[in-house]
């Protein structure tokens, strides 16, 4: 066999588009690909995937078993892996983080300590169903878990790390791909208009990681 089937499994495309399948020629006049590292180099050199994603890309068999880059392609093919679309090798590209970070900011209580929180994406209902979550799903999660009192629901909005207003309908994966909320130092801001209500009781006075 001089060909290997692979599929691209990109985190940011989950629930948005099916994995893309590709047939890679292993032995041509220009190159001879012997192990999975050779295939990776070929993929990034050809520009099939942004080279910046190289540090977050790895191989798995079709059953999810992780495979080292040094694994010989001939041996994989002898095992029946990558010989057809049904047994294609999976190139996993984790181009979005597993969680989103944000902080609470009270408009009329600027002296109040800023609290930062993390929510794992797999705790959001749409993500569990294979659907791309919106920023609104993060807001809903916050109120469903009573991290903010219900009467503040009409009085909150989001800001990005540069102060730009973010909309509830914004695709969460896209925001993460732009660097919004990817880590504690780049947390998005949940702006809370606490006028005439005083400082509400908050369920957490520390970083509530979930």
Content of β-strand: 15-25%
H-E order: EEHEEHEEEHHEEHE
Beginning-to-end CA distance, first to last residue: 47 Å
Give the overall silhouette: elongated
Low-confidence stretches: 198-210
- Could you state the CATH homologous superfamily of the largest domain? Phosphatidylinositol 3-kinase Catalytic Subunit, Chain A, domain 1
Helix content: 10-25%
Q: Write down the CATH topology of the largest domain.
A: Ubiquitin-like (UB roll)
Helix-strand makeup class: alpha+beta
Number of helices: 5
Give a short account of the largest sheet: 5 strands, mixed
Number of strands: 10
Overview of the molecule:
The protein is of the alpha+beta class and 210 residues long. The chain folds into two domains: 3-93, Phosphatidylinositol 3-kinase Catalytic Subunit, Chain A, domain 1 (Ubiquitin-like (UB roll), Roll), CATH 3.10.20; 99-192, Roll (Ubiquitin-like (UB roll)), CATH 3.10.20.90. Helices cover 17% and strands 24% of the residues. The protein contains five helices and ten strands; from the N terminus they run ββαββαβββααββαβ. It has helices spanning 36-45, 73-78, 125-128, 135-144, 172-177, and strands at residues 3-10, 20-25, 57-60, 66-67, 89-93, 99-106, 115-120, 156-159, 165-166, 188-192. The strands form two sheets. Strands 2-1-5-3-4 form a five-stranded mixed beta sheet, with no helix packed on it. Strands 7-6-10-8-9 form a five-stranded mixed beta sheet, with no helix packed on it. It is elongated. Residues 198-210 have low confidence and may be disordered.
């Amino acid at each position: 066999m001089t060909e290997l089937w692979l599929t691209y499994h990109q985190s940011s495309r989950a629930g948005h588009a099916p994995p893309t399948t590709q047939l890679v020629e292993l032995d041509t006049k220009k190159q001879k690909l012997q192990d999975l590292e050779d295939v990776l180099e070929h993929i990034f050199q050809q520009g099939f995937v942004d080279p910046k994603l190289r540090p977050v890309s790895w191989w798995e068999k079709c059953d999810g078993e992780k495979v080292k880059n040094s694994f010989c392609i001939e041996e994989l093919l002898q095992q029946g892996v990558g010989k057809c679309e049904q047994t294609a090798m999976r190139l996993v590209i984790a181009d979005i983080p597993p969680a989103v970070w944000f902080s609470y900011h009270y408009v009329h209580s600027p002296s109040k300590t800023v609290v930062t929180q993390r929510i794992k994406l797999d705790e959001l209902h749409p993500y569990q169903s294979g659907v791309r979550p919106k920023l609104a799903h993060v807001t809903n999660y916050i109120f469903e878990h009573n991290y903010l009192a219900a009467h503040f629901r009409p009085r909150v909005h989001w800001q990005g790390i540069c102060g730009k207003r973010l909309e509830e309908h914004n695709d969460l994966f896209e925001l993460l791909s732009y660097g919004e909320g990817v880590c504690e130092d780049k947390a998005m801001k949940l702006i809370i208009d606490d006028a005439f209500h005083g400082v509400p009781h908050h369920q957490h006075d520390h970083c509530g990681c979930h």
